[in-house]
Design brief:
Helix content is 43%, strand content 0%. The chain has 177 residues and is mainly alpha-helical. It has a domain at 61-167: Cytochrome c-like domain (Cytochrome Bc1 Complex, Chain D, domain 2). The longest helix has 28 residues, at 2-29. The radius of gyration is 28 Å and the shape is elongated.
Length: 177
């Protein structure tokens, strides 16, 4: 019985060894080269033509759009933010900081919130222009931010949201003219 087990074990080992050798030989005989371009053209609808201008090149300055912004619409848009942020004065932080008084305040202004290192080291103020750029693509504006929101591509929606955020203060900052 003991000899029979050894024969079976040896044959399995030889088979595995042969498979490994054949695999190594085949890798050396046929070396795949990576494609320069994907063969299958899958359209996702997100492609931008090569001659198209980037959104920042074609958008108007935020100050001009803010002059027609709707605070009521901004309040509706802000509901997307309620999962991570609070808006009321003195309200507790959630995943993100409370946004009361954020407009024209320092970046990472809430002393009792733990910001990412990227946000703390960014510096500056949340001006209308800075908020516009951040809300468009947060992870591109501040590389390393913890904020997982992909952004608002529509400039009018961003302006409406910023107009609403500007009302959330004891002394709201005036909108640019």
């Amino acid at each position: 019985m003991n000899l029979e087990f050894n024969k079976i074990f040896a044959s399995v080992l030889v088979a595995l060894l042969c498979m490994q050798i054949f695999h190594l030989i085949s890798e050396n005989l046929i070396s795949p080269t990576p494609l320069k371009q994907n063969i299958l053209g899958i359209e996702t609808g997100n492609e931008i033509p090569a001659n198209a201008a980037t959104p920042q090149e074609t958008s108007e300055p935020i100050g001009k759009i803010l002059s027609t912004a709707s605070v009521a619409n901004g309040e509706k848009i802000a509901k997307k933010c309620l999962q991570c942020h609070t808006f009321d004065k003195g309200a507790p932080h959630r995943t993100g900081p409370n946004l009361w008084g954020v407009v024209m305040n320092a970046v990472a202004h809430a002393s009792d919130y733990i910001y990412s290192q990227a946000m703390k080291s960014h510096g500056g103020k949340w001006t209308y222009e800075a908020l516009d750029a951040y809300l468009q693509k947060p992870r591109e504006y501040i590389k390393g931010t913890k904020m997982s929101f992909v952004g608002l591509s529509n400039a009018q929606e961003r302006a409406d949201l910023i107009a609403y955020l500007s009302t959330l203060a004891d002394s709201p900052a005036p909108l640019p003219q």
